[in-house]
Design goal:
The complex is a heterotrimer of chains A (100), B (372) and C (349).
Chain A (H helix, E strand, L loop, with lengths): L4 E8 L6 E6 L2 E6 L13 E5 L2 E5 L2 H24 L10 H6 L1
Antiparallel strand pairs in A: 1-2, 1-4, 2-3, 4-5
Chain B lengths: L9 H14 L6 E7 H9 L10 E8 L7 H11 L4 E6 L12 H6 L4 E4 L2 H10 L4 E8 L4 H14 L4 E7 L2 H10 L7 E5 H7 L5 H7 L3 E4 L3 H16 L5 E3 L11 H10 E3 L2 E4 L3 E4 L3 E3 L8 H4 L15 H6 L22 H4 L4 H16 L3
Parallel strand pairs in B: 1-2, 1-7, 3-4, 3-5, 5-6, 7-8, 8-9
Antiparallel strand pairs in B: 10-13, 11-12
Helix pairs in contact in B: 1-10, 2-15, 6-11
Chain C lengths: L26 H15 L2 H4 L5 E5 L2 E10 L5 E2 L2 E2 H14 L3 E13 L4 H18 L3 E9 L7 E11 L15 E4 L5 H9 L5 E3 L9 H11 L3 E5 L5 H10 L5 E5 L7 H10 L13 E4 L4 H9 L8 E7 L6 E4 L5 E3 L13
Parallel strand pairs in C: 5-6, 11-14
Antiparallel strand pairs in C: 1-2, 2-7, 3-4, 5-7, 8-12, 8-13, 10-12, 11-13, 14-15
Helix pairs in contact in C: 3-4, 6-9
Classes of the chains: A alpha+beta (100), B alpha/beta (372), C alpha+beta (349).
């Protein structure tokens, strides 16, 4: 369940501080931020949107660290295979795909 | 799209897939259940089964709120819609779910005032703009969605609305997981846990699964990279004979959950003593009802609903499929009487239902296997 | 073992009443046309169930098409019902490789419709027709009671001359043939969805409605012999059009998902609402299946016409799986791309 998508806060209404204008890849909508702590988010922050509400603030640092770790995992794997003398170049150009 | 595209990056996914292939014990068969229907949908949409090692079997869990809603409750909602002066607002997911007399879309075609909304706040807005109409919002969903309904009811009270109500069908995920774990036919080795439910509840609610049942639970995000990494984490625990709750979805899920959301839920809702789940039967303390203090917004108090129990049509084995005991093609109606165009049960309607997902894959597999 | 109905069996129409799904362009529409209407009208020109019927009249091959336009709201960013009606009809002729010659239009008007609104639509039709160089030579008007017709409905008839350079024949499609798409998908359908206002989203997006004959003409002049099939992916989107193609053949289609172009706003709206862009209507795009030896020429031809810069090959014809459209992503993951069942509905789960 739970289709929820990351979006970026464009602005928070001064008259209605629980309402944020949020952008998702070129589409904008008002999103209720009442499920977040007051002051937790502001313009420029990224949030997770579900049925018109923000469920969570995205921890950008966590995202970055995780991606870096996973990227390294793939590269370590490659290094291991190369040491073993077995490359993926034999398998449908996957190597080129990764090095893209 | 930021925080989406990076987690669909083919190069990184291939790398993690290779690590997973290297990590599985070739002599072992791993049965991993992804609890959440959103994960089921994502697995099929992103073709993840093609990059999993053959000895990892994914079992689709019951975390699809449309799928587990009994037909009787759908009928109850449609009975509300049939009343004069009432407009029923529901999510798109509900529009093609069959009740006894038809789907919401079909009833709408016959004149019922049924409107599709993206947010419960949109239903509230319809009520504000139509003071002579009563707008009833048909709410479904797990803990992911319940806080939004709670805030909407609080907002209705703030506005002093007298023409708005909610037909509450929110259910909670832990009792369903417990029912799966206690089921004698169940042999699941580990779980990919529901990422967005956990954004609200945190990860603590699953600790009993590791402690009492000895199964690992990895709370996962919904992008293909998230799901793949979570499966890898489950496999690593299984290989090491460990059973812990881990959080793969750290960028979204706080270990302690979302306190304002939990407070809103506690303010507006209480647990029903029991609730019927399609396929899993009656489960105690598994669903939410609106508290007495908000009775004026409770459709079940405002309207006489039939409350009739409706059994699944003969031959339909929605229950066994929901529990993961049967794979969809093993249901006698699969692909013949029950298909996406004429669904018999909700698992074929919902795009995250196991049967709908499997239908596409099974049709493909059958086509590949068919002789030239 | 799975027992799945093959897609070859002619569907009977057993529904007791007409639903919105029957007009959505997907499987329900197909059942209505082929299961109820087709059997009564049965004749060779109809059996092909293509966008235009080709009639041979005293040695001249003429293509004829009829179309109906029902859209709410009548005016939307990038166009209006009048413009849609003209372009849509011309496009049906174009993708049948027929040079449009004339149009006719029947207007069903709701009593109470403001004259200014009607005049805007007539003007829009005139502008679109003039831009394409095609006259609107006649038609009819009817008025129905207030509460019917959503303001106005437009029904059209178009006629064109089959271009001799074309050798369109789905039976000539072979594994290895390439699938060409003229440009970004989903703009029209998402624009309409947002314009209705019910979902309260806003985006800088306009309908892609336009006449595609100039692109088709370029294709015919550069690679007529290599052009196997064309279709404009309107209701039901690219997925439905391609599924309709493969269901009668001995081949399937594989799409490379990374190569399908779409505007950011279409992508954003689809992700937010849980919609598949391949199911969303387009009103200014076309698909073509091209023999591999003509592929480079075909792409160059479409790109050489203003508005065709984003044309791209999105996939190819394969021997297996037969009668299926599959999508392949960047890491080799596959999925089945189905025909649309009813209207695309947003979801929250």
């Amino acid at each position: 369940m739970c289709l929820a998508i990351p979006g970026q806060i464009v602005e928070i209404s001064a008259e209605q501080p629980l309402l944020a204008r949020v952008e998702v890849g070129g589409v904008q909508r008002n999103v209720n931020i009442g499920l977040l702590d007051p002051g937790e988010v502001g313009a420029g922050d990224w949030i997770l949107i579900h049925v018109g509400f923000a469920l969570s603030k995205i921890d950008e640092r966590q995202a970055h660290d995780q991606l870096r770790m996973l990227q390294a995992m793939g590269e370590d794997q490659l290094a291991i295979e190369e040491i073993r003398g077995y490359t993926f170049a034999d398998q449908d150009g996957e190597l080129d795909e990764i090095r893209r | 799209m930021k925080y989406v595209d990076e987690f669909r990056e083919p190069g990184i996914i291939s790398g993690v897939a290779r690590e997973l292939a290297r990590t599985v014990d070739p002599a072992r068969h791993y049965r991993v259940m992804e609890v959440c229907g959103g994960h089921t949908h994502s697995i099929y949409r992103h073709g993840l089964r093609d990059v999993l090692p053959p000895n990892i079997e994914l079992v689709h869990g019951p975390g699809c709120p449309v799928c587990v809603l009994p037909t009787g409750r759908v009928d109850d909602g449609l009975a509300i819609a049939a009343r004069d002066g009432v407009a029923l607002a529901c999510f798109g997911d509900m529009m093609r779910v069959p009740g006894t007399k038809g789907t919401p879309l079909e009833l709408k075609a016959r004149g019922a005032d049924i409107r599709m909304v993206y947010s419960p706040l949109d239903a509230l807005r319809i009520a504000e703009q139509n003071p002579h109409k009563h707008v009833c919002f048909f709410s479904i969903g797990f803990e992911t969605t319940a806080p939004s309904t709670a805030l909407t009811i609080l907002r209705a009270r703030e506005l002093g609305l007298t023409n708005f109500s909610v037909f509450c069908n929110h259910v909670t995920i832990v009792p369903a997981m417990r029912a799966i774990l206690d089921s004698p036919d169940m042999r699941i080795d580990g779980f990919v846990g529901p990422g967005h439910v956990s954004a609200i509840t945190g990860c603590r609610p699953y600790e009993f699964i590791a402690a009492d049942y000895g199964k690992p639970v990895v709370v996962a995000g919904f992008e293909p990279l998230d799901i793949l990494e979570a499966i890898l984490m489950v496999v690593r625990q299984l290989n090491a004979n460990e059973a812990r709750v881990e959080n793969q979805y750290k960028r979204i899920v706080p270990w302690e959950g979302n306190p304002p959301a939990l407070r809103a839920m506690a303010q507006v809702f209480e647990l029903r003593p029991y609730f019927e789940w399609r396929g899993l039967g009656f489960i105690s303390q598994s669903a939410l009802a609106i508290k007495e203090s908000f009775a004026v917004y409770d459709a079940e108090k405002l309207f006489d609903i039939p409350g009739v129990r409706v059994t699944d049509p003969r031959g339909a084995q929605c229950g066994e499929v929901l529990k993961g005991v049967l794979k969809p093609p093993q249901c006698k109606l699969f692909g013949t009487e029950c298909n996406p165009e004429h669904p018999v049960g909700a698992l074929m309607v919902s795009s995250e239902g196991a049967c709908a997902a499997y239908y596409r894959y099974a049709v493909y597999a059958a086509a590949v296997e068919a002789p030239a | 073992m799975t027992t799945i109905e093959t897609t070859r069996r002619t569907p009977r129409f057993a529904d007791a009443q007409i639903e919105m799904a029957h007009g959505a362009g997907g499987t329900a529409s197909r059942r209505l046309v082929e299961g109820l209407i087709g059997p009564y009208f049965s004749n060779p020109a109809l059996q092909a169930f293509s966008d235009a019927a080709v009639l041979s009249i005293e040695g001249t091959r003429l293509a004829t098409t009829a179309d109906g336009f029902v859209v709410k709201p009548l005016r939307f960013p990038g166009g209006s019902i009048g413009e849609l009606a003209v372009n849509g009809t011309l496009n049906d002729l174009a993708v049948s490789a027929a040079k449009p010659v004339a149009l006719m239009a029947t207007l069903i008007l709701e009593a109470g419709l403001a004259t200014s609104t009607l005049e805007s639509e007539i003007e829009a039709m005139a502008i679109a027709a003039r831009k394409a160089g095609i006259p609107i030579v006649g038609g009819d008007t009817k008025v129905v009671e207030h509460g019917m017709a959503d303001g106005m409905y437009v029904s059209t008839f178009g006629i064109g001359v089959s271009d001799p350079r074309a050798m369109l024949d789905p039976a000539s499609i072979r594994p290895g043939d390439r699938v060409l798409l003229s440009g970004p998908i989903g703009a029209h359908g998402i624009t309409i969805l947002l314009a209705r206002g019910e979902l309260d989203f806003q985006a800088d997006l306009v309908s892609d409605t336009r006449c595609v004959w100039p692109f088709v003409e370029a294709l015919l002049s550069q690679c007529g012999p290599g052009l196997r099939w064309m279709r404009d992916p309107t209701r039901g989107g690219v997925a439905t059009a391609l599924n309709e193609l493969v269901r009668g053949g001995e081949y399937g289609i594989a799409l490379s998902e990374e190569h399908v172009p779409m505007h950011d706003a279409v992508r954003g709206a689809c992700e937010l609402l849980g919609l598949d862009p391949l199911h969303i209507a387009n009103e200014g795009q076309f698909l073509a299946v091209v023999a591999p030896s003509y592929a480079d020429a075909a792409l160059a031809a479409v790109r050489s016409v203003e508005g065709g810069e984003r044309a791209v090959f999105i996939g190819d014809v394969r021997a297996e799986p037969k009668r299926r459209v599959i999508g392949i992503n960047g890491y080799g993951g596959t999925r089945v791309i189905d025909m649309l069942v009813g209207d695309p509905l947003p979801r929250i789960c």
